[in-house]
Structure formats: structure tokens, C-alpha cells
Design a protein that fits this description.
five-stranded antiparallel beta sheet; two-stranded antiparallel ribbon; about 260 residues; alpha+beta
Length: about 260
């Protein structure tokens, strides 16, 4: 009887803060999300329609970890990254990927009665980039743990405050300009089968709601003694995000004016 072969070496992947993520060959293994069935169905749907903006869902391994296909590229997971990851061409491609996601899910059982399915955690740390003549551009979103039915504007707003600077020393006009680029590119990606434009007047209000929900969620998770949330709060993340919220409240009119310019 042949001796059992050893498991392939596990390579820890950088950037995993709340979940443990490792690479084994051409697969990624990670802590499964609470809504694993929904996430699995969503990723299978995106693969079936050829959306090409997410890893493939490969089931669960013997250790109960979610298995995904490995996506080659670079993820800007550090706090200080190359500004090229945040360039205008990168914002345009980002908006096009978001639109592709929303159009692929609108009207499906996954979306239910909602406009579409939203990723709900779009940040540079959850985005894989590859190099192009225009510089590094987004190609795939990862970490779909929070995906759920929602409104199109939610993902665009979330990306708006994650691909721009907020807080002391930040330029509210620049935040508005970057949000305008996202909205323009998102609207430009519409077609006859998926028409429609974003309600830009709602964008800043949605951003404020998301920012408050984010720090409150971390705070509540830390109170429940969840390790990832506790680490985030211990690092001052809750206080930092609350300062972003106060800053955006103060500059709301300036940001909105720049967004609509």
C-alpha cells in the first residue's frame, strides 16, 4: 500500500487581516465566510456568464476552508502604496469592473428584489491589479464575504472613499473629482440591455452612512471579542474612521459640488 503523500506547502498570502489566507499551488484556501452558500453561488454565476472579475469557487477543503482559484497579480494591501494604483486610468477601469458585476447580477435570483448584487467591501486591499501600458489597472475583486443584494450606488460610493484620501490634510475637491471619474466611467459603461445612470446627488450621503456603519461594525465586533475586529480597534482604526466621518460631514457641500461639476 503506497504511503500517503504530504500536503503541498502552504504559502501565507500577505494582506489577510481578519481571515487566514494561504496559497496551495493554483488554489487559495481561506477562512470560509458566514454566507458561504451565497458567495459560492455568486462566484459560480460570475464564472458562468464570463464576467471575469472574481476568482472561481472550488468548494471546501478537508480542513473546512473555502477553496478559490489563485489569481496572479498585485494587491495594494499596504497603507502606503504606489500612487499609480490610484491613478485616473485605474479609477476608470475600477468603475467598469463594478458596472460589469452589477449588470451580470441585475434581475437574477441572487439579487432578489434588489437592483443587483453588491460586493460591499471594495477597497484596494481586495483588488488584484496587473500591469498595462497605462500603468497598473484593476482586473479582479477578491474577498466576497460581505456580498449581498443591494443598490448600484452602494459599491460606487464605497469605492469612492476607499480610493481617495479623507481626513486632516485631504482635499475635498479631489475626493469629489475622483468620485466624478467613477460615476462618469460607470455611466459610460451602460448599454441597451443595462441602461441607467447613478443618482449622484445621493452619493455623499451613502458614503457617510457606510463610514459610520464601518466603524460601528468594527467596534461591535471588538466588543464581541472577535480577534480581527479587536486588532483593528486596538490599532486605532475606529477612531480614525470616525475622524473621516467628521471630516466628510464638514466638507460635504464642497465634495458634492466637485462631484457634480
Amino acid at each position: 500500500m503506497p504511503e500517503p503523500t504530504a500536503d503541498p506547502a502552504e504559502e501565507p498570502l500577505s494582506g489577510g487581516f481578519v481571515t487566514d489566507v494561504v496559497r496551495i499551488g493554483d488554489t487559495v484556501r481561506r477562512t470560509p465566510p458566514v454566507n458561504l452558500d451565497f458567495v459560492g453561488a455568486l462566484l459560480r454565476h460570475l464564472a458562468e456568464v464570463g464576467a471575469d472579475l472574481a476568482p472561481r469557487h472550488l468548494g471546501v477543503d478537508d480542513h473546512g476552508r473555502q477553496m478559490l482559484s489563485y489569481v496572479a497579480g498585485r494587491v495594494p494591501w499596504r497603507n502606503q502604496e504606489d500612487p499609480a494604483f490610484f491613478s485616473d486610468p485605474a479609477l476608470v477601469r475600477l468603475a467598469e469592473l463594478i458596472r460589469r458585476l452589477h449588470d451580470a447580477c441585475a434581475g437574477t435570483e441572487l439579487a432578489g428584489d434588489a437592483e443587483t448584487v453588491c460586493h460591499r467591501d471594495l477597497s484596494p486591499k481586495n483588488t488584484v491589479y496587473r500591469d498595462f501600458p497605462a500603468g497598473p489597472l484593476p482586473v479582479v475583486f477578491v474577498d466576497w464575504d460581505l456580498a449581498a443584494p443591494g443598490r448600484r450606488i452602494e459599491d460606487v460610493a464605497f469605492a469612492g472613499w476607499h480610493w481617495a484620501a479623507l481626513g486632516d490634510g485631504a482635499d475635498p475637491v479631489e475626493l469629489g473629482r475622483r468620485c466624478r471619474i467613477l460615476c462618469d466611467a460607470y455611466d459610460a459603461a451602460s448599454n441597451e440591455t443595462a441602461p441607467g445612470r447613478l443618482a449622484r446627488g445621493e452619493l455623499v450621503g451613502v458614503m457617510l452612512d457606510q463610514i459610520e456603519s464601518t466603524w460601528r461594525g468594527i467596534d461591535a465586533g471588538a466588543d464581541r471579542d472577535e480577534p480581527g475586529m479587536r486588532r483593528l480597534r486596538d490599532e486605532g482604526t475606529v477612531d480614525g474612521i470616525r475622524r473621516w466621518q467628521d471630516w466628510l460631514h464638514t466638507h460635504r457641500e464642497v465634495v458634492t459640488a466637485a462631484l457634480k461639476a
